[in-house]
Amino acid sequence: MSQTPKHSADAPVPTSTDVARLAGVSRATVSYVLNDTSAVRISEPTRRRVREAAEELGYVPHAAARSLRAGHSRMVLLPTAHVPVGPLYSRFLNEVQWALRALDYTVVQYGSLGLGADEAARAWAELRPVAVLSLGEIGLTPHGVRVLKRSGAKAVITLGPQRVEGAHALVMDQRAVGSAAAAHLLERGRRAIGVVVPAEPGLDLFSRPRLAGVRKAVSEGGADQPARVEPLTMAYDEESAARLAAAWRGLGLDAVYAYNDEYAQLLMRALQDAGVDVPGECAVVGADDLLLGKLLRPRLSTVHIELPTGREIAELVDRVVRDPDGDVERHDLMAAHAIGRESS
Amino acid sequence: MSQTPKHSADAPVPTSTDVARLAGVSRATVSYVLNDTSAVRISEPTRRRVREAAEELGYVPHAAARSLRAGHSRMVLLPTAHVPVGPLYSRFLNEVQWALRALDYTVVQYGSLGLGADEAARAWAELRPVAVLSLGEIGLTPHGVRVLKRSGAKAVITLGPQRVEGAHALVMDQRAVGSAAAAHLLERGRRAIGVVVPAEPGLDLFSRPRLAGVRKAVSEGGADQPARVEPLTMAYDEESAARLAAAWRGLGLDAVYAYNDEYAQLLMRALQDAGVDVPGECAVVGADDLLLGKLLRPRLSTVHIELPTGREIAELVDRVVRDPDGDVERHDLMAAHAIGRESS
DNA sequence: AGACGGTGGTGACACGTGTCAGTTACGTGT
DNA sequence: ACACGTAACTGACACGTGTCACCACCGTCT
């Protein structure tokens, strides 16, 4: 066990054939024993011999060969985004992973970094996953969906701000977030609302609908007291925030919805440093209901987002895998409600 | 193209045999053409016919069958942690992924959620990765390393606080972080240092060495002015922080090193709410040099950690894959230096 | 004595691919 | 006229696994 720790590199990887030879049985028997196939009866002494042989050789089955033979796998592909993901998102992702594993799926995150949308889909298809669950950003075209389905994927599910032709869609309508924020500000009597739009590329898939949601809420707000909406581009760094804050007084705004809590924190700090009173002079509201919001002074108002649970997602995947020809579902989810704290 | 969008489920997945049949050539020719095998000459007209046939059928090669035949893959397995990862870590992970892909490796994140260490290693080994790069928490035993190498993994590399027998180790000595923080506080004249130890399980792999580093720096600090170290357990939520802050005066401490910036933020806020003056009454220092530290008032002192770049890691992986029998390296990295701001 | 049924196991094929060794067809040199 | 080289392609095997159909053996019943 402790000898020859080094040149194990040239030792061939043990296969079920090696196990069979060592146990003095056929390869078929080995397969039956190690997979606990109930339809075939193997005597207990033989079972033990096989198990011991496998143990001694350190035999580990070859997943690729297995799924090649089986004609299918239980692999769920989870394309990873290349955008900087927030804490809310990464917690959700972990939850989904757990739930899928509980249903006996093999979850694989696979990055498509640097590839085009269709090239990425092709690369995913090579792995022959039984399901593809694309979270957040799309990066999936109708053509990509066809390629995946053609390669045997039973379920292609997108969870994001918009739907993709051919795929099951869990539409998270980000506009609801903007609407909730705007409604909250209007209710508090604000009438000139700035909307921070992140300068970072990749986030616009989220930020644009959120902005649209603000506009919608404002226009529906009733004509009794018309309000104004002003988009403001800002990057996630101190200089950009300071620049925006310095110009604040000239903008004539009395409120700002800052995309999410992290941007809100950054901007609020810059505003305070520039001598702008929050919430007196300007109300600030973020989104995502992160812990940090409660730590700020004034405490940050935010929009809490109700995401589906990991288990719900996993069960949807499982349902679609079992019945791929079911109707293409389109669920609208994402309930959002504002939480008023001290900053608004 | 737009017809039969539904019952594509029963259509068999096209293989290279189908392509060959459609193009009127042998399967071997298809393989040569699609892989651009330079050693074999195929006429240009034939090449085109094959390519067109593949395109028409939507042929995508089967990665499993390919690597089965080849006897090896270029897959790098990146076990994902189940601990809540910080922003520093997740940025680093993305960087590594990029760099590996640039070297033509297929990066796969694979979670071992809910499995024991050795069961997880076995599950990884089934995928027959050419390399395993375990970041952060270990979750890898010497036995697990043997299983992986036995299954054909050329490189097993751990990057974490401690090394694992048999694997190449990039040791990030977390003690350096604690030492830097303590040295900084001592230099500023503090003599009674509290050390926040997260209550969250899974983080103790980091927090324990950091605490040890504090102790080391204090004991080496010279006997001219002996200092005291006091471990303090705290969870990452407001109640826990408030509880600790309420008892603060009784502890007789004049400084605290709070594991990382996020815990420091939480504690500092609680201390301020409890009327403890920072830094007058108590100096606070965090770690990881996150952006949020600069946004706090007083600005948070921190310990900046110098991580290896993604490219360095990727090149190490590549080197070990090419020469697996090279010496088991043990790199000590992680330079850490304190950044004094206003909170200490 | 021969048919019968159950126990315990095996031989052989298929999955989709890459690649080596051959095999045509054809022009060329002596 | 015949060997020879070369361009262009193909037949067949191997990779490691799961599973179906089949087989040998042995005790039991009529």
From TrEMBL, chains A, B:
Domain of life of the organism encoding this protein: Bacteria
Domain annotation HTH lacI-type: ranges: 14-70
Keywords of this entry: DNA-binding, Transcription, Transcription regulation
CDD domains: HTH_LacI, PBP1_LacI_sugar_binding-like
InterPro entries xrefs: HTH_LacI, LacI/GalR-like_sensor, Lambda_DNA-bd_dom_sf, Peripla_BP_I
Signal sequence bounds: none
SUPFAM superfamilies, per database record: lambda repressor-like DNA-binding domains, Periplasmic binding protein-like I
One Pfam entry name: LacI
The keyword GTP-binding appears for this protein: no
PANTHER family: LACI-RELATED TRANSCRIPTIONAL REPRESSOR (PTHR30146), LACTOSE OPERON REPRESSOR (PTHR30146:SF153)
Protein name: LacI family transcriptional regulator
UniProt source species: Streptomyces chryseus
